[in-house]
Design goal:
Blueprint (H helix, E strand, L loop, with lengths): L5 H9 L14 H11 L11 E6 L2 H7 L8 H5 L3 E7 L7 H4 L6 H5 L2 H25 L3 E5 L4 H8 L6 E9 L15 H4 L4
Antiparallel strand pairs: 1-2, 2-4, 3-4
Helix pairs in contact: 2-7
């Protein structure tokens, strides 16, 4: 497999910044479908795909989220054209006979609920990371966010499905395109071991 062109890495990693404010430009619904169609191709443990995604695009939907947001996140989130609730299905393993038909993986999780919970949380987090990269590749600006009441979000949005929220990702187009100064990052020898 060949490396992608340098300008792709520049867009996804080097030039990307967390937006402070959003422009009025809407995100086309077709782009959200395209985004999900990239996310679903990314690898998860045993192809378990526990991630579930609620795309809040309407003002009424975003306002339902308001009481669950911490005060410091309200304005930044509500003004975003799209808020994605990255969630997971605790019963993700019910789809495994279809998603991984060669081995009976369903029983691994159905018989060990703590293991299933851990797997669902870890892999939905991974899928949220893929969402961030795919969104940036599609030209969207991305604001990942914690700082909200998970139990309240689950009650408001997922009572029927039984899904559980993990974190939020705001999507749109930033008002200001100049690259702001990036905060410091750890160097390789501070964060990595080569063994």
């Amino acid at each position: 497999m060949n490396s992608l062109p340098a300008d792709v890495f520049k867009q996804i990693f080097e030039d990307a910044r967390t937006p402070n404010d959003w422009s009025d430009q809407e995100v086309d619904t077709c782009l959200l479908l395209k985004l999900y169609n990239f996310i679903k191709l990314a690898p998860t443990s045993g192809n378990c795909q526990p991630g579930r995604f609620a795309f809040l695009t309407h003002v009424a939907s975003k306002e339902k989220l308001r009481p669950a947001l911490s005060s410091g996140n309200i304005d930044r989130a509500i003004r975003a054209p799209v808020i994605v609730i990255v969630a997971y299905d605790p019963l993700f393993y019910e789809a495994l006979p279809r998603l991984y038909p060669d081995v009976d993986l369903r029983s691994w999780y159905a018989e060990d609920i703590p293991f299933a919970e851990e797997t669902a949380f870890r892999n939905s987090t991974l899928q949220g990371g893929y969402l961030i990269l795919a969104a940036r590749a599609l030209g969207l600006d991305v604001l990942p966010m914690s700082g909200f009441d998970n139990a309240l979000v689950d009650t408001i949005f997922f009572e029927e499905q039984g899904w559980r929220s993990n974190f939020l990702i705001c999507l749109g187009y930033t008002k200001q395109k100049e690259c702001s100064e990036r905060l410091p990052r750890l160097d390789y020898d501070e964060a990595c071991l080569t063994l």
